[in-house]
Amino acid sequence: MAEKKPITGLTLKLIHRDSIEPGNLTDIEKLHKLIDRSKLRALHLFSTVTNQPDGFNHHPLLKYESGNYVVQIGVGTPPPSDKYYLILDTGSDLVWLQCGGCDECFPQTQPMYNPHDSSTYQMIPCNHPLCDPYPCDDGHCNYEQAYSKDVYARGILSKDGFVFVDDVNHNVTFLDGVIFGCGYQNHGFEFAANPNNNIVGVFGLGPGHRSFTSQFDFQRRFSYCLADWQFGPPQKTSKLVFGDDALLPISGRVQTTPIVATSARFYYLKLKDMTVGEKRIGFAPGTFDRKPDNSGGFIIDSGTSISFFVKSVYDVVRQAILDYMKPYNLSIIDGSKYKLDLCFKRPEGFGKFPSILLHFQGSEYPEQEAELTIDPFGVFFIGDKDPYFCLGILPTPGPNQINILGAKQQVNNRFLFDGTNNTLSFIPEVCELS
User: Fold this and answer.
1) What residues does the Peptidase A1 domain cover (predicted)?
2) What would the CATH number be for the domain defined by 249-428?
3) Which of 380, 286, 406, 420 lies closest to 45, judged by CA?
4) Vertex 198, ends 32 and 188: CA angle to 5°?
5) Which residues have a Cβ under 8 Å from the Cβ of 41 and sit 6 or more positions away?
């Protein structure tokens, strides 16, 4: 029996979703899948913040891509033998999973969670503060979590115990009273196309009041450190840490920038400028600010595999990369083979890759800066068997005007999200050793 105890900290294994979706893909095929997933995620984010059409109808087989990483949980009392994978999503608040007896379901390999089998399951009543503004039916609270026009999860807002297993130390933690969505109508999710799907729902970590971090004594704090990867999942797993366990190293220089206060369900940051190699670009003030129509702005999102910049910004960064590479007389090659834009032929032994430095507003004084370094393995995809390297950043797809710092450009940094103080802190770290 899992031990029940007050929880002020929690550490979970953060699993790259490709590691639970086995396949015999080549590196190029893995890269194509990653790029397609990222473009659709960017379309989704833009449509969510602006309420504009997102163009998903142009991608009937991949209507919605929801992220790169999953966490594993058990639900109910007694603790079940079945463990479920939920997609980590910093762009939505609600935790939800499919429930037995659902009217509209996607396939999953494991038996569905059945609330009738759990002695601790409860439906959330209409007068609960987390019910507002959800509708009510027969005294219980219904929910709808919309991800785009044709992608949504609907069901009953519920409460039950969640079981978390630490695979390293084999500790079992039972967290009582997690509020989540018991999904009975789940429509438009891309993992529905996989008959061997292992993903059963979403683990929302957005800044809203229904987020997992807002429910318990976690001080609305969580941190993660993403291990380096190129084409497939990293060899080492990463960790997702909450509350008292979410600490940054006392050695080294911790950088802190404010999370811009908005009503949106994403984490907006105040980016001021960039440096490529040793050359600071000098973007005009306000370039990365959010516009009155909710376009623009700069979002950090672990669910998007690579970064996207609006075209005017991307073109400047692209030219700065070209200027950096000019003294080395490298051949530019067609990037369409890799579904990327700027690619070079890599001579044997070549290693002169630039880093990119992001200059954010400091947390205490506007004139201060917090600097995040994207190392060369975060900036580029570097071929192993094939002698090439490509810029791992693309212009935002379609008419979209939003800048996204994706997962590849976050590797080997530890990030601490502090929802109480509305700050993001970070420090370089070799994540596979953490």
Assistant:
1) 69-427
2) 2.40.70.10
3) 406
4) 70
5) 65, 66, 67, 301, 303, 304, 305
Residues 93, 186 contacting (CB under 8 angstroms)? no
Task: Judge contact between 216 and 7, C-beta under 8 A.
Answer: yes
Q: Rounded CA gap, 414 and 241, in Å? A: 11
Residue from 251, 237, 228 nearest 374 by CA: 228
Residues 6 or more apart from 8 whose CB is under 8 A from it?
Answer: 216, 217, 218, 243, 244
Compute the half-sphere exposure of residue 412: CA atoms within 13 Å on the CB side of its CA: 13
Domains 9-245 and 249-428 share a fold: yes
- Enter the pTM of the model: 0.90
pLDDT of the residue at 355: 97
On the 0-12 / 13-18 / 19+ scale of CB atoms within 10 A, 98 is buried
Q: How does DSSP classify residue 314?
A: H
CA–CA distance from 276 to each of 81, 287, 335, 369, 407 (Å)?
A: 50, 17, 21, 16, 19
pLDDT in tens, 224-235: 998 876 665 556
| Exposed / middle / buried, residue 249 (Cβ in 10 Å: 0-12, 13-18, 19+) | exposed
Instruction: List, for residues 307-327, the tens digit of each pLDDT value.
Output: 999 999 999 999 999 999 999
Domain boundaries, the chain: 9-245, 249-428
CA distance 57 to 65: 13
Amino acid (1-letter code) at residue 250: I
Q: Are 75 and 118 in contact (CB under 8 A)?
A: yes
Q: What is the Cα–Cα distance from 326 to 332, expressed in whole angstroms?
A: 11
* Residues 44-77: b if buried by 16+ CB within 10 A, e if exposed: bbbbbbbeeebbbeebeeebbbbbbbbbbbbbbb
β-strands 267-269, 298-300 pairing: antiparallel
Q: Which CATH number fits domain 9-245: 3.40.640.10, 3.30.1200.10, 3.40.630.30, 2.40.70.10?
A: 2.40.70.10
In whole angstroms, what is the distance from residue 300 CA to residue 403 CA? 9
| Residue whose C-alpha is closest to residue 96's, from 78, 84, 81, 110 | 84
- The one-letter amino acid at 106: F
